[in-house]
Design a protein that fits this description.
This protein is an alpha/beta fold. It is built from 14 helices and 8 strands. The longest helix has 23 residues. The model has no long low-confidence stretch (mean pLDDT 95).
């Protein structure tokens, strides 16, 4: 049985795809009233238009998760440590499905899991994926990061479905950073489109943003080739070009002068965390710096773009 902590769009989408694959799944959400409604109506407001199969056990009781050998954590990165500290469950394996860097500790989700749940083997899922696509059964590929090869092989079999294909790697840091840093670049790309700067500007930001990702990741212990895979380049390509991405949508709103919708946007906090990591390691990340200033309200899109354009000319 698979347990999923977090009944947002992504957690619900995973529950739907596993239920369709005849896997017993328990989906936990903290809002008891919303969970009761979803259980009765077999619908979720977080995933409109998608029926919830009867095989999904919806619950607001953490005790129901205790029987699950594998628990997927579909919880926003900046709330992960708090939620885990409040949970009584201690699964054998915990798989993070969040993308970001903790703003307080500057660590990724697997380190947060290891601290909060000693004895639990941490892993994570990351890659180009929209919740609606997964729930509809559209083909999706994700990277599965797990330092323990034996556990990783078992997880790959357990968490793959006919429409959800997982690629395994032991480069956990690389998978974490690919999924986290691409959100920052997606905000920049959205801002460029929102400000009317065009697709050429977006392509430049994607490319130079990838260069920044490849400078920081090895300094933190990641393998560069991991960033060129699903959790880095693949996810960057998806989220830098679609308003379905919350990070792109945030940047687009900021770029056009609109008021951003209130939603969890992991890249906003990750920009601040990544900038602190870059300064700690002496790494130049101008796009990340511009995004951090933009989301903090310390710079306008015009100012941020001008700062990037005024930089000295260098070799690629």
């Amino acid at each position: 049985m698979i347990g999923i902590l977090g009944a947002g769009a992504f957690g619900t989408a995973l529950a739907v795809t596993y239920a369709k694959a005849d896997v017993a799944v328990t989906l936990w959400g903290r809002d008891a009233a919303a969970i009761a409604t979803a259980r009765r109506m077999r619908r979720s407001d977080r995933l409109p238009g998608v029926p919830l199969p009867d095989a999904i056990d919806l619950t607001a009781d953490t005790g129901a998760i205790a029987a699950c050998d594998v628990v997927i954590l579909a919880i926003p990165m900046q709330r992960l440590s708090t939620v885990l500290a409040q949970m009584d469950v201690r699964p054998r394996i915990a798989v993070a499905a969040c993308k970001g860097v903790d703003l307080e500790t500057l660590r990724g989700p697997t380190a947060i899991i290891a601290d909060a749940w000693p004895g639990t083997t941490p892993a994570l899922l990351s890659g180009p994926s929209f919740a609606a696509d997964i729930a509809r059964g559209l083909p999706t590929a994700l990277a599965l990061g797990c330092a323990d090869e034996t556990v990783g092989v078992d997880l790959q079999r357990t968490l793959s479905t006919p429409t959800l294909r997982l690629y395994r790697t032991d480069d956990v840091v690389g998978v974490e950073l690919g999924g986290a840093l691409k959100n920052v670049i997606a905000i920049a790309c959205g801002a460029a489109i929102g400000a009317g700067l065009g697709d050429s500007a977006r392509a430049a930001l994607m490319t130079r943003g990838m260069a920044e990702m490849l400078r920081l990741a090895p300094a933190l212990g990641a393998r560069p080739q991991t960033l060129m895979g699903l959790s880095g380049l693949g996810d960057l390509a998806l989220t830098s070009a679609s308003p379905q991405s919350r990070n792109f949508a945030l940047g687009q709103a900021l770029g056009s002068g609109a008021t951003p919708e209130v939603a969890t946007t992991e890249g906003a906090a990750t920009a601040q965390a990544a900038l602190r990591l870059a300064k700690r390691h002496g790494i130049d990340m101008p796009i990340t710096q511009a995004v951090a200033a933009l989301v903090a309200g310390d710079a306008s899109v015009k100012d941020a773009i001008q700062t990037l354009l005024d930089r000295g000319l260098t070799a690629e």
